[in-house]
From TrEMBL:
Residues with site note (Important for dimerization): 145
Entry annotated with the keyword Cell division: yes
GO process annotations (BP): cell division
Domain called Septin-type G: residue spans: 23-295
Taxon lineage: Eukaryota, Metazoa, Ecdysozoa, Arthropoda, Chelicerata
Recorded GO MF terms: GTP binding
Protein name according to UniProt: Septin-2-like protein
Name of a matching Pfam family: Septin
GTP-binding is among the record's keywords: yes
Protein family according to the UniProt entry: Belongs to the TRAFAC class TrmE-Era-EngA-EngB-Septin-like GTPase superfamily. Septin GTPase family.
């Protein structure tokens, strides 16, 4: 006769949630796009801060010769007991100079540096407190005035879509009518497909998700690329304070979903933060790690690849190389322990 009762595993998710909430979460966002598209304003709107109050806007002459810089801002958020440390990586100067080739290289180098540092940390002796500075999401700003993707947009996304989760954003959506926004979204998606550019795809909902979540997720998925209106200006509208823009013909609330996808973008980042992190870790970083290990072996794997061996055999060889490296690392750790004993 089986003994009745419960083992207690049902409370495991609660314990995991409590422990994770206490430890906190890290998330890194990169914002990329030409100057004047409202990147800083949107970041301030998303995180309810003023992260760029000390930034100076360069003159037109300096913009022409300007090079791309990498600027990092960190923000600690505590909401309902959940700790979140957000790192915002901005790229002022992107696309400003006449020769934009350097724009790609600076951003790509930074992404590779974060992958490389993470690889070194997880291969080191102390792996308990690894800091994850890898970029989990790239908000790429597209101008509403070009009526589609520019060559700069295409070249950047084509070059980096295998290293970063790209989320396209149409800037300054209040410069377009609702019909123009819908047409521009379709054109951008078509041009992305024509140029073989992969953007982040929201995973399908699990079968046990409730209907309300499914509807919301479907709305977000169909809104990509997000058409955004940003503003940090507080305006009185019918007795309530809103963040919006005031025009001769009226006031636009940036959270009004009839005109802006701001709420959908914010909800997307909240609902799919872990999906973005998983994609970075399981797909983008693993691709980098595999290529890096191949280079460490003097291109041996690449040479074998051209010899006609099967993909399964190549994968097996890569796993053997990784196992040998791990064994060497364990031997080094044991030697260090032996020498440290009195």
């Amino acid at each position: 006769m089986p003994i009745g009762g419960e083992i207690g595993f049902a409370t495991l998710p609660e314990h995991v949630h409590r422990k994770s909430a206490k430890k906190g979460f890290d998330f890194s966002i990169m914002v990329v796009g030409e100057s004047g598209l409202g990147k800083s304003t949107l970041v301030n709107c998303l995180f309810l801060g003023d992260l760029y109050k000390d930034r100076k806007i360069p003159s037109v002459d300096k913009l022409i010769e300007r090079t791309v810089n990498i600027e990092k801002k960190q923000l600690d958020i505590i909401e309902k007991g959940i700790k979140l440390r957000v790192t915002i990586v901005d790229t002022p100067g992107f696309g400003d100079s006449i020769n934009t080739t350097g724009s790609f290289q600076v951003v790509e180098n930074y992404i590779d540096e974060q992958f490389n540092q993470y690889f070194k940390d997880e291969s080191g002796l102390n792996r308990k407190n690894i800091v994850d500075n890898r970029i989990h999401c790239c908000l790429y700003f597209i101008s509403p005035f070009g009526r589609g993707l520019s060559q700069l947009d295409i070249q950047f996304m084509k070059r980096l879509n295998s290293k970063i989760n790209i989320v396209p954003v149409i800037a300054k959506a209040d410069s377009l009518t609702a019909i123009e926004v819908a047409q521009l979204k379709k054109k951008i998606l078509r041009e992305l497909e024509e140029n073989g550019i992969s953007i982040f795809k929201i995973p399908e909902c699990d079968s046990d998700e409730d209907e309300l979540y499914r509807i919301k997720d479907k709305e977000i998925r169909e809104s990509i690329p997000f058409a955004i209106i940003g503003s940090t200006t507080s305006i009185d509208l019918n007795g309530r304070r809103i963040r919006g823009r005031e025009y001769p013909w009226g006031i636009v609330d940036i959270q009004d979903e009839r005109y802006s996808d701001f709420i959908k973008l914010r909800t997307f980042l909240s609902l799919h933060m872990q999906d973005l992190k998983d994609s970075t870790s399981d797909v983008l970083y693993e691709n980098y790690r595999t290529n890096y290990l191949a280079q460490l072996n003097g291109g041996r794997i690449a040479e074998l690849d051209s010899s006609g061996l099967s993909a399964d055999r190549l994968l097996q060889m890569k796993q053997e190389e990784i196992r040998r490296m791990q064994e060497q690392l364990m031997m080094m750790q044991e030697q260090l322990r032996q020498t440290s004993r009195p």
